[in-house]
Amino acid sequence: MRWIPDLAQTTRHRLLPTLLVLAGLTLGGCATRSEPVAPPPSSPAPVLLISIDGFRADYLDLGITPNLQRIVDHGVRAEWMNPSYPSLTFPNHYSIVTGLRPDHHGIVHNSMEDADLGLFRLSMREAVGEGRWWGGEPIWVGAHKAGLANATLFWPGSEAPVQDVRPDRWTPFDADLPYRKRVDTVLGWLSEPAATRPRVATLYFERVDKAGHDHGPESPETRAAIREADTAIGRLLDGLQTRGLLGAVNLIVVSDHGMAPTAPERTIAVEDMVSMADGKVVSYGQSVGIEPAPERAAAIETRLVGRHDHYQCWRKQDLPARWHYGRHPRVPSIICQMDEGWDAIPAEYMERRRAAGA
User: Fold this and answer.
1) Domain-terminating residue out of 254, 273, 292
2) Which residues of the chain, if any, have pLDDT below 70?
3) Which residues constitute the signal peptide according to the record (predicted)?
4) What is the count of structural domains for the chain?
């Protein structure tokens, strides 16, 4: 068996495909009585779209996010959202900015193959920046076509020329860039004169997701990451207020997926699902994509398709209709969905987990 490594899928804590948090507001209604609010702007208010990756819906109820709560109290909050399948970072972030499901925009997994383009995974910067992977029309491309200034401070897809168009302002993803610097950059954009100020901008925070994968969605480390993201939101709100912009920006805060805990004893080796001689594992984790060897396709389908202990497999054309998934040519021929709390990874990664005491 050959597999396509995707280090983002080797973590201990898998994605819960039924949870996504969305908090949205118009900042014109987001001030307390003691907070001065600028009068309505003479030009259309810019939109700032913020993602806190991996922020589970119920994290808002932990009592450790006063700044997000400030938004909830004076704006609106959805109780939950169902992410697109598969509930992964790149497919869902790109769905948010295109309005398309992964089966239509082409980012069908964090790790995938294309007959012409080859291999895609998160760590492959050249692939991430190749516009031909990215279908649909992200919001910054639509803004460009409408003659509107736009900017992205990290967002999946923003590093690639989609339809030969890049955001007016963008930067390659840098996990080491402190949150405060990200916020201050965006505040600088929003403080510009109307002639240059972005009408659409994005901002991205990833460390809640990383902490959840590394330590568990209910761990102290994840709580610390939640607080860090909330502090960044507070810095943004305070910065807008100081600049007299609190009533002049439309702010939307979203997340791409939730998480459910797993453990080494709830992990299956992908080699136990399909052998090297039988096919290739294109993606793994909670959603496992398998491409059988042509000469073994019928036999592998017969053996894999159906219910197994802790997972179920389908032919791509027979996936549950509610997933809206399986028609894009990048979707592997067989998709196996792990039960909640279970994981499937290569055996070598299982050994690394055990050695690390995971």
Assistant:
1) 254
2) 1-42, 355-358
3) none
4) 2
3 state DSSP class of 315:
strand
pLDDT digits (tens, 9 = 90+) for 44-67: 899 999 999 999 999 999 999 999
Dihedrals phi, psi of 232, to nearest 5 degrees: -65, -40
Could you give the angle at the alpha carbon of 335 between the alpha carbons of 332 and 339, nearest 5°? 155
Question: Exposed, middle or buried, 322 (CB in 10 Å: 0-12/13-18/19+)?
Answer: exposed
**Which of 254, 271, 300 finishes a domain?**
254
Closest CA to 237 of 64, 107, 93, 50: 50
User: Which phi-psi region, left, alpha or beta, contains residue 106 (left: φ > 0; alpha: ψ -120 to 50)?
Assistant: left
pLDDT, the chain, mean: 89
Task: Spell out the residues 6+ positions from residue 140 whose beta carbon is closer than 8 angstroms to its own.
Answer: 97, 150, 151, 152, 158, 165, 167, 168, 200, 202
pLDDT for residue 42 = 59
Matching residue, tokens 């998709």: 335
Q: Tokens standing for 158? A: 């923003």
166 shares a domain with 304: no
Q: Which tokens belong to 2?
A: 């050959």
Q: So which residues are the catalytic ones?
A: 89
Give the whole-angstrom CA distance, residue 140 versus residue 158.
Answer: 8
The reported pTM is: 0.89
Question: Which is nearest to 14 in space by CA: 56, 52, 50?
Answer: 56
Query: Structure tokens of 105?
Result: 């925009």
